[in-house]
Amino acid sequence: MANEKELTAARVLNALDLIRSDIGKLRIELSHQRELTERRVESLEKQIADHETRLRDASAGVTQFRFWSTMTNGGSALMSLAALVKSFLP
């Protein structure tokens, strides 16, 4: 009977050691996964910032193009008006 209790106690202790070992391994794996996830998030944040910068630059380029296009069209209209006025003058 005492031998049986010692055997059961040894089995329980062995199972407890295995559980502790598994928990330790899971903590290490969780830490590793957390680190990888943080790196992925940082990488995605950098990509988002890069895309935002590119979009702002493209938007600024379009705005400048529209401005110069409007100025050119306005200048062309002004020249046409001047030519029209000149054609009516003696």
What amount of the residues lies in strands?
under 5%
Shape: rod-shaped
| Main β sheet profile | none
Order of helices and strands: H
**Which parts are unreliable, with pLDDT below 50 for 5 consecutive residues or more?**
none
Q: Can you describe this structure?
A:
The chain is an all-alpha fold and 90 residues long. It has 1 helix and no strands. The protein has one domain (1-90). It is rod-shaped, with a radius of gyration of 39 Å. It starts with a helix and ends with a helix.
Q: Can I get a quick summary?
A:
The chain has 90 residues and is mainly alpha-helical.
Keywords:
90 residues, mainly alpha, 0% strand, rod-shaped
Lay out the secondary structure.
Blueprint: H1 2-88
